[in-house]
Write a structure and sequence with these properties.
Layout lengths: L1 H11 L3 H18 L1 H15 L4 H49 L3 H5 L3 H43 L1 H48 L1 H6 L3 H53 L5 H13 L2 H8 L1 H18 L22 E10 L2 E11 L4 E5 L6 H8 L7 E6 L2 E2 L5 H6 L1 E5 L9 H6 L7 H10 L3 H5 L18 H15 L3 E5 L7 H14 L4 E5 L3 H4 L4 E6 L2 E6 L1 H7 L2 H10 L9
Helix pairs in contact: 2-4, 2-6, 3-4, 3-10, 4-6, 6-7, 6-11, 6-12, 7-9, 7-12, 9-10, 9-11, 16-18, 18-19
Length: about 575
């Protein structure tokens, strides 16, 4: 429990002072809560000593009223301080997490971690935000109250104080045992929550395919089974804790009885007066209640610890190092625009690129062709540093991109993918993302060059039309042209096209080809494509197969080789694909 509180303090950062102040105020509240008991003992003493009078009653009433007011104020101030700090801490934590995720390699997001990320952001942080500060306040109040009660017992009698201390230690040790047992189950509970999130995301993202193949019932049953499993895990989590809760009640009753027996023994021996004995009896009813309440928070506490562990687990993922030893403006003399020097790359432990070496001259077009899974998209991703190479170097203008800041690198590269994602915002803002400081005239000009001005003008609100998330309200070709307009506006010197016309109809393909021609004027172009009319005019064609460069040259040179590329072209002319090429 103390470890948990230290973790909360560690993550509180600049809000630590607010938490410390809240703790101090909680201590005042804990003392004020015991004033009625203390005044009751004093009142009993006055009755036995026959000093009870009107003035004493008035003073006692004033003391109790002041204590009640102070308790209310302390509660109010402490809650405000802790709640405010809790929301601010978690808000900063979300920003830190977002910054950390921004610097993770793309592989982290494509290796089945979307459920974890969503669960951490939507479940774990929210649970910490809504529960941690309240639990912190309760834990601190319970601890302070327990310490104060033990101090009072020592004030009544040393033996009674020692017994109360030993009994408190027994309850604490049992509570530690409860925590260890609950911790394993809470970790499993959060894992099931992650699996549930992942399943829901998969179901929603694939709903179109599921419906088209009439598998809605089957997929719904699978999703329902995941819900059932998550429900069973949560119920088991609660039911497994029930015997421990019963045990806590038993120990609480046992230790209270031990304290009462001790107090009775010292009273019978004449070691304490009847007034002290009555005071101990009153305190004995409440002395272990704070510890009991403390450990009744175990379930929430262990879930919060699991949440913190999962949040920290994301932060432990290795970032792409953002060094800035060089700038791309400081190009080496006679350096090629892009170079791969004996590049090896592995997804997890499986190597997919084996010693790739090539160079691309400035303002030239290089086409990457080859069978699916050969490594074409991986090469394009390494140029944009979506991942870091396992060994070897990727250079731009003679500079190792791992030693160039990520922001500068991305300022020099534009990418057009087969699958385009647009944000739920206006068409104008989606294009202006390419260069936020661009003028309205520049945005419109980019739209015209990308051959999307005409259809944008026909939208209900033109450039101010809000499109659905992911661009759902537009056709595939329209989304593609908006993404090209974004790249044209960005005006980066290196352009990467990854199957940009693979999934569009003939009319859209013509418009997209015209837009790409505008985008690529005076640029260094890397194209991943299968269509002959896209690659035949390339300055260099690299045929990538099984993670290596199998052939390289111009279209004419490769046709003269009578190798894989020529067979590919002949197959394409007969509307066949790469799968037949071995």
């Amino acid at each position: 429990m103390l470890k948990f509180m230290l973790r909360i303090f560690k993550m509180s950062g600049k809000y630590k002072k607010s938490l410390i102040l809240a703790i101090f105020i909680s201590f005042i509240k804990a003392m004020m809560m015991k004033v009625p008991l203390i005044m009751t003992v004093i009142f009993i003493g006055a009755v036995y000593s026959k000093t009870l009078n009107t003035a004493f009653c008035i003073k006692s009433a004033i003391v109790l009223t002041v204590a009640l007011v102070l308790q209310y104020l302390a509660q109010n101030i402490s809650d405000r301080l802790q709640a405010s700090a809790g929301y601010k801490i978690c808000a900063d934590y979300r920003l830190r997490l977002g910054e950390h995720l921004r610097k993770l390699p793309m592989g982290y997001f494509t290796e089945g971690n979307m459920g974890k990320i969503s669960s951490v952001l939507s479940t774990d942080i929210v649970f910490i935000e809504e529960s941690s500060m309240n639990v912190m306040a309760d834990l601190i109040n319970y601890l302070f109250a327990a310490i104060l009660m033990i101090v009072f017992m020592f004030n009544f009698n040393i033996e009674v104080g020692a017994v109360s201390l030993i009994c408190s230690a027994l309850i604490y040790l049992y509570g530690i045992y409860m925590r260890k047992s609950a911790m394993a189950n809470s970790a499993l509970r959060q894992e099931k929550s992650e699996e549930l999130t992942e399943s829901v995301l998969d179901f929603v993202s694939g709903i179109g395919v599921i419906k088209s193949y009439n598998m809605l019932e089957e997929s719904s049953e699978k999703l329902s089974s995941v819900f059932d499993e998550s429900c069973k895990t949560s119920l088991k989590f609660e039911s497994d804790f029930t015997p421990f809760a019963w045990g806590l009640h038993f120990i609480y009753a046992l230790t209270t009885a031990m304290l009462l027996l001790s107090a009775t023994r010292v009273y019978m021996n004449g070691s304490i007066s009847i007034v002290y004995y009555m005071g101990i009896l009153l305190f004995a009813i409440d002395i272990f209640a704070p510890l009991k309440a403390f450990f009744q928070q175990i379930l929430r506490l262990t879930v919060m610890e699991s949440c913190l562990n999962r949040m920290d687990g994301v932060f432990l993922e290795r970032q792409l190092l953002d060094k800035a030893e060089y700038t791309l403006d400081e190009a080496k003399e006679n350096a090629k625009e892009i170079e791969f020097c004996d590049v090896h790359f592995a997804y997890d432990k499986k190597e997919v690129l084996h010693g790739i070496t090539f160079d691309i001259k400035k303002n030239t077009m290089t086409a990457l062709v080859g069978p699916s899974g050969g490594g074409k998209s991986t090469i394009a991703s390494l140029i944009s540093r979506f991942w870091d190479v396992s060994s070897g170097r990727v250079l731009i203008r003679g500079r190792d991109i791992s030693k160039v800041s990520l922001s500068e690198l991305m300022n020099n590269i534009s990418m057009v993918f087969q699958r385009v994602y647009l944000f739920q915002d206006t068409v104008y803002n989606n294009i202006a993302m390419g260069r936020p400081d661009a003028s309205k005239e520049e945005v419109i000009e980019a739209a015209k060059k990308a051959r999307c001005y005409e259809f944008i003008s026909k939208l209900e609100n033109g450039f101010d039309t809000v499109i659905g998330e992911g661009g759902a309200s537009l056709s595939g070709g329209e989304r593609q042209r908006i993404s090209i307009a974004r790249c044209i506006l960005k005006d980066a010197p290196i352009v990467i096209l990854d199957e940009a016309t693979a999934s569009v109809d003939a009319d859209n393909e013509r418009l997209i080809q015209e837009a790409i021609s505008e985008l690529c004027k005076g640029k260094t172009l890397v194209v991943i494509a299968h269509r002959l009319n896209t690659i035949k005019d390339a300055d260099q064609i690299l045929l990538i197969s099984e993670g290596s460069i199998a052939e390289r040259g111009t279209h004419k040179e490769l046709m003269d080789m009578n190798g894989i590329y020529r067979r590919f072209v002949e197959l394409r002319q007969r509307d066949r694909g790469w799968t037949a090429i071995k």
